[in-house]
Design a protein that fits this description.
The structure holds two protein chains of two kinds. By secondary structure, chain A is an alpha/beta fold. Chain A is 41% helix and 17% strand. In chain A, a hairpin with a 4-residue loop joins β11 and β12. In chain A, 50% of the residues are buried. Chain B has a single domain, classed as Sufe protein. Chain: A (Alpha-Beta Complex). Helix content of chain B is 40%, strand content 20%. Classes of the chains: A alpha/beta, B alpha+beta.
Chain lengths: 415, 148
């Protein structure tokens, strides 16, 4: 990472960063790839790819099982990854880090364990209008099972949470507040610290969906004061199929087990089974060891670049993109909150976002078009779909210019 | 603009997107809903069948240019045809839009303008949603059709 260290403070040497992402070198339909679908998944740096390769070439064995050397090395790497994740989130204890498949599994785990024992008929779960389906549907299923009910914090037309309405929604029956840190459609950075503080003052448990936050800003779960924080590795330059559930130790210890099987047991007889201590209690079966080790490499990578510097660079790029996009006639940005990160959703006249996506693709530009797994939010916004450009640390102003030029071509086609 | 894009977004398709034909509801007859859950495209196809002949057909909904133009062209193509003829046309249409790029293009009259979809495999669902929904309306199936 010498190339990063040599750059001035508060700026990124993006050319050097890009060189670390092999996939970005390719051409699509004869044009240089402009990858602006980072909210869906991020690309992987050489550090992560090499770690995955090295793990399988040099260390692969099952963890916490063998007496042999390889198993010892794999176990060391797996445990070290948990400490890396603890440091990344500034959790108090590595036992508060549970490896899961991703954000979706993390939320489902909390719903099916904490939720099943803590919710009764008539209790209330508070969500927001801008949640991803994965922070809605697990709670709906929990409500069906327990008789609890959902309450929804409304947003303003610019895409900001209405904190006044939030406070009015809270009752003696509110047991949980579950909120996205950053909206995957609007880019809104929610005031999660305030949301959590207000919840905790009333003894309400707070969960934060950090899927769209961790690649773009530093996260400190102790400073936030949340009870649960979940994110996916693949959205922070790590492999797919691995993610992290942070849970406060007291809660994780009290919760019932999630999946059962090898690795999560203490002692098993046909009469009775005792369970392993944290964090293994929630990690039944052979874990995604390579994924976990690769995720740790990704977290080290972004930490090495510096999340404060990434946030500053992306803030500048997001402002540039906002100005550039609004210069396109007929383009309307969806989501204009004061605090935004890395996501630019838009519509252009009555041109359908799929048609925009197809034409941009022919210019090598990858964006997402659709409802972004946020159908209730789409209904609130009164649009069927949006086109979405989402940024990461390797994107440049030149790429934004290419996007804008291609959007002008989209308009020519449909004129 | 690439040649493939020019072929996909031909003037006829853009025209049917801007001014879709038979874009209305029918009061009587059969209907079915089509939905593409991944992209959110929605369509309702209305059908009036008499003695095995499609006397009237119309649609409503929201979707991309390809799905809207395909629905519009479909209504023009099947009106007056027997249900069996419409079904056969759907099969030939499906073959045309999923054929290899270098395969000869079947002459399906007005529908031939949609042959360019074959260059864009992810857009095949857009072009076929209306037809799947038409078939459900013919069967008077009381369910939402999906192209997933």
């Amino acid at each position: 990472m010498a190339s990063i260290v040599s750059t001035p403070r508060d700026s990124l040497d993006v050319a050097a960063l890009r060189a670390e992402f092999p996939i970005l070198r390719q051409r699509v339909h004869g044009k240089p790839l402009v990858y602006l679908d980072n909210a869906a998944t991020t690309q992987k740096p050489r550090a992560v790819l090499d770690t995955l390769q090295r793990y399988y070439v040099e260390e692969n064995a099952n963890v916490h099982r063998g007496v042999h050397s390889l198993s010892g090395r794999a176990t060391d790497a797996y445990d070290a990854a948990r400490e890396t994740a603890r440091r990344f989130l500034n959790a108090a204890d590595a036992k508060e880090i549970v490896f899961v498949r991703g954000t979706t599994e993390g939320i489902n785990l909390v719903a099916q364990t904490w939720g099943r024992v803590n919710l009764r008929a008539g209790d209330e779960i508070v969500l927001t209008e801008l949640e991803h389906h994965s922070n809605i549907v697990p709670w709906q299923i929990l409500c069906e099972a327990t008789g609890a009910e959902l309450r929804v914090i409304p947003i303003t037309d610019t895409g900001e949470l209405r904190l006044d309405a939030y406070e009015r929604l809270l009752t003696d029956r509110t047991k949980l507040v579950a909120v996205a840190h950053v909206s995957n459609v609007l880019g809104t950075v929610n005031p999660v610290a305030d949301v959590i503080r207000i919840a905790k003052a009333r003894g309400i448990t707070a969960l934060v969906d950090g899927a769209q936050a961790v690649a773009h800003m530093p996260v400190d779960v102790q400073a936030l004061g949340c009870d649960f924080y979940v994110f996916s590795g693949h959205k922070v330059f790590g492999p797919t199929g691995v993610g992290i559930l942070y849970g406060r130790r007291a809660l994780l210890e009290a919760m019932p087990v999630y999946q059962a099987g090898g690795g999560m047991i203490g002692r098993v007889t046909f009469e009775r089974t005792t369970y392993a201590d944290l964090p293994y209690k929630y990690e039944a079966g052979t874990p995604n060891i390579a994924g976990v080790v690769g995720l740790a490499a990704a977290l080290d990578y972004v930490t090495g670049v510096g999340l404060d510097r990434i946030a500053a660079y992306e803030h500048d790029l997001c402002a540039y993109a906002t100005a550039a996009l609004t210069s396109v006639p007929g383009l309307r940005l969806i989501g204009t909150a004061r605090e935004k990160a890395s996501v630019l959703s838009f519509v252009v006249g009555d041109i359908h976002p799929h048609d925009i996506g197809t034409i941009l693709d022919r210019d090598g530009i990858a964006v997402r078009a659709g409802h972004h797994c946020c159908q209730p939010l789409m209904t609130r916004l009164g649009v069927a779909a949006t086109a979405r450009a989402s940024l990461a640390l390797y994107n440049t102003r030149d790429e934004i210019d290419a996007l804008v030029a291609s959007l002008h071509r989209v308009r020519e086609v449909f004129e | 603009m690439s040649a493939e894009l020019d072929e996909l977004y031909q003037e006829v398709i853009l025209d049917h997107n801007r001014r879709p034909r038979n874009f209305r509801a029918l009061d009587a007859g059969q209907k079915a809903e089509g939905f593409n859950p991944l992209c959110g495209d929605r369509i309702t196809v209305y059908l009036s069948v008499d003695d095995g002949v499609i006397r009237d057909v119309a649609f409503q909904g929201s979707g991309c240019a390809i799905s809207k133009a395909s629905a519009s062209l479909m209504t023009e193509s099947v009106k007056g045809k027997t249900v069996a003829e419409a079904q056969a046309l759907f099969e030939r249409f499906q073959q045309m839009i999923t054929a290899r790029a270098d395969a000869p293009v079947d002459n399906l009259g007005k529908l031939t303008v949609l042959a360019g979809v074959r260059q864009f495999p992810v857009r095949v669902k857009c072009a076929s949603l209306a037809w799947h929904t038409l078939r459900a309306a013919v069967d008077a199936r009381n369910e939402v059709v999906s192209t997933e």
